[in-house]
Design a protein that fits this description.
The chain is of the alpha+beta class and about 220 residues long. About 50% of the residues lie in helices and about 15% in strands.
Length: about 220
């Protein structure tokens, strides 16, 4: 007859193995990255963010709700940002092309208390264009002010710079041809590229869409 201690050894070994596997996975897991947001800055902010940070158009005011701001009423206490880096980069290209800031939320006083509004969560259970914009832009509104030391300018992609230079060369080459050829391309390309960034839902909206068409969400061309 086998000893009770010997019978327990296999199960004890299995438990030790599980503990070792759990410990190794914990050690291998990278430490959590602090929360980051992104904002495509406008030309005015590009001149001042290093010294003044980013500021809402109307700090401390309460006459605009978060939904008002997302709907385009940007004379509020909020600053539009996004959790989506690629979306911020696209807005930057469609707007002033002044750059994209990476924002460390841990360096924004009060951010993790009541210093921000996640518009994706804020519009859950609702419908309409506000929800469409919030989800399309993954918008997060920051209250009042973002310090300069919380911001870091993202360097432009080298490949994008080469593509931009090649595009300029092609335009210059086309411009040196006949006036008819140069005029044939017109401004349609820029108009279509600007429209491409808008959600399909906006094309089906009536009156609100006319106002929203000029709204650069999540830090576009117009200061938010």
């Amino acid at each position: 007859m086998r000893s009770p201690i010997l019978l327990l050894l296999p199960s004890a070994s299995f438990l030790v193995l599980l503990l070792l596997l759990q410990l190794s996975s914990t050690l291998a897991r990278p430490s959590p990255d602090p929360g980051h947001l992104y904002r495509a800055i406008n030309s005015n902010e590009a001149q001042t963010w290093r010294t003044n940070g980013l500021n809402a158009q109307n700090p401390g005011s309460t006459h605009r709700s978060p939904s008002d701001h997302t709907d385009g009423w940007t004379d509020s206490q909020y600053i539009s940002t996004t959790t989506d880096k690629k979306r911020a980069q696209q807005i930057n290209k469609d707007g002033d092309n002044a750059g994209v800031l990476k924002i460390n939320t841990d360096k924004i006083p009060g951010f993790h208390n009541d210093g921000h509004v996640d518009m994706v969560k804020h519009t859950e259970g609702s419908s309409g264009l506000t929800k469409t914009w919030a989800n399309f832009n993954k918008e997060v509104l920051v209250k009042n002010h973002i310090p300069a030391d919380a911001c870091k300018l993202i360097r432009r992609d080298v490949g994008d710079l080469f593509r931009r230079a090649a595009g300029c060369a092609r335009k210059k080459s086309a411009g040196s041809g006949s006036p008819k050829t140069a005029a044939g391309k017109g401004a349609a390309g820029s108009t279509q590229s600007a429209r491409a960034a808008k959600p399909a839902a906006k094309s089906t909206a009536a009156a609100p869409a006319a106002k929203k068409a000029t709204k650069p969400a999540s830090g576009g061309g117009r200061k938010k």
